[in-house]
Amino acid sequence: MSKRQQLKRTAVVCLAITAMASGATLAQAQAWPNRSVRIIVPFAPGGSADVFGRSLATRLQASFGQTFVIENRPGAGSIIGTDAAAKSAPDGYTLLIMSNTHTINETLTPNKPFQLMRDFDPVAPLSNSDLVLVARNNLPHKTLAEIVAAAKAKPEGMTYASSGNGTPYHLAGELLNSLAGVRIIHVPYKGSSGARTDVIGGQVDMMFDAIATMKSQIEGGKVKAIAVTGAQPSGILPGVPTATQSGVPGFQASLWLGIMAPKGTPAEILNRLNAEITKITASEELRKAWSAQGTIPMTMNVEQFRTYLNGDIAKWARVIRDAGIKAN
After folding, report:
1. Residue 125 pLDDT greater than 90, yes or no
2. Which of 191, 246, 264, 277 has the fewest CB atoms in 10 Å of its CB?
């Protein structure tokens, strides 16, 4: 056999192997899901990611006829659970609930064991909600203006809790420090539940939290609402002013959630998930339920979500660098 014939045969074999691999991947994607799918939530149970993740899992289970299991893996400001997801097989059977904690951490925590856009594929956004600043009931200050005045009179005399370094709750507190020209000390926790418990118990002065999660605590008289973080007052917390109305112009922060998958997950699976999640978040029943909690469903295709993620990473990079914010 001539050298030319050998090269031709090798090329044919390589093409055949590639075709077989592509066919196997396509068949795998078409058969998906044929067993349970786990959704890693890298935050503690009880927080908004957990609440909305479970709501989504229930609906995906009904749509696909397979179990979607929530697995809480909190710690290190979402890094522990996210790293576990990044190291999982890219076969569609592991998904990640993520938030702007992740886009913030790309700048705030550069030495983590993964990079968001390198190690994950976008699937779909999920929801967006404003935050509320709440304070312990026995804090003598009743308004944000009073808190700012007290913080200026006694620097580092007050504390705020968060669910961990680099989370949106942390950055909301640092944004308040920056815009108001104060220094309220950050007290990070391993999850929002611990932070919430200590504000309710009076061990920490205040915290930013999702309205959907904190609403019942406010209505039950366990904490007092100081201000909401949106451009407009919240329809489900009547009478609570925005931070801008309370004397901190330009303050605006929110918590959004989305779904990602380990890098290399077949595009067919990503697109099927995106289409189903879009259908779920567009449903009138879900929109009404989430609206009652101060949450707006978000809808984008895979590429639009990729663009959104890159833009959010760049936005928070500017904020963090301009304000000189460092991870504690």
Report:
1. yes
2. 264
Q: Which two tokens stand for residue 47?
A: 């927080």
- 260 lies in which domain range? 29-129+256-323
For residue 84 the two structure tokens come to 């576990």
Residue with tokens 């973080």: 229
Verify that 148 and 295 share a domain, yes or no: no
CB 324 within 8 A of CB 293: no
Q: Strand pairing of 68-72 and 37-41?
A: parallel
Distances (CA, A) of 183 to 115, 161, 283: 31, 13, 43
Q: What pLDDT, in 10s, does the model give residues 310-321?
A: 999 998 898 888
What's the CA gap between 237 and 215, in Å, rounded? Answer: 8
Specify the number of domains making up the chain: 2
User: 199: which 2 tokens?
Assistant: 């504000």
Instruction: Please say whether the beta carbons of 212 and 128 come within 8 A.
Output: no
User: 81 and 43 in contact (C-beta within 8 Å)?
Assistant: yes
Q: 117 and 59 in one domain?
A: yes
125 in the same domain as 33? yes
Q: Which two tokens stand for residue 31?
A: 């058969």
The candidate with the shortest Cα–Cα distance to 227, out of 142, 162, 101, is 142
| Burial degree of 24 (CB within 10 A; 0-12, 13-18, 19+) | exposed
Residue with tokens 């112009």: 249
Q: CA 261, CA 194: separation in Å to the nearest integer?
A: 28
